[in-house]
Amino acid sequence: MAKAYWIATYRSIADPDALAAYAKVSGPAIAAAGGRVLVRGTPAQVYEAGLNERTVVIEFDSVDAARAAHDSEAYQHALSLLGEGAVRDIRIVEGAEG
Predict the structure, then answer these.
(1) SS3 helix, strand, coil % of the chain, rounded to 5?
(2) Where is the DUF1330 domain (predicted)?
(3) Pairing state of beta strands 36-41 and 86-94?
(4) 8-39: pLDDT as tens digits
(5) Which residues, 6 or more positions from 23, have their beta carbon under 8 angstroms from its beta carbon?
(6) How distant, in Å, are the alpha carbons of 46, 51, 75 from that of 64?
(7) How many CB atoms lie under 10 A from the CB of residue 13?
(8) Which string of DSSP letters, residue by residue, matches 57-98?
(9) Could you tell me which CATH number the domain at 4-94 has?
């Protein structure tokens, strides 16, 4: 079974305090669901139509595990803390094998 990657880019951050509250709760919720944060921060370099946006990449054992983490009660609570504090683009992508 291929691993899956949850990729989040932050188009804008309107409330840094809400983002901090979200981060404090979301990290443990994601880890409890089997997620492993691989990347968190702004790009060192962007090319072509790339945007200089905060990016987070989280690895899961499968697409189902990534979906379950997102839909979990613990992560949904974290989202409630974020509220309208940020505009994000989140994608779950299956990893390429081999």
Answers:
(1) 35, 35, 30
(2) 3-95
(3) unpaired
(4) 999 999 999 999 999 999 999 999 999 999 99
(5) none
(6) 30, 29, 15
(7) 15
(8) EEEESSHHHHHHHHHSHHHHHHHHHHTTSEEEEEEEEEPPP-
(9) 3.30.70.100
Contacts of residue 10, defined as CB under 8 A and 6 or more positions apart, other chains included, come to: 53, 54, 55, 86, 87, 88
Task: Beginning with the edge strand found earlier in the chain, give each strand of the sheet holding 36-41 in spatial order.
Answer: 36-41, 54-60, 4-13, 86-94
Say what the pLDDT of residue 55 is.
96
| Domain assignments of the chain as residue spans, ordered by start | 4-94
Predicted model pTM: 0.91
CA distance 16 to 18: 5
Q: What's the token pair of residue 98?
A: 């081999």
31-70: burial string, b at 16+ Cβ within 10 Å, e else: eebebeeeeeeeeeeeeeeeeebbbbebbbeebebbeebb
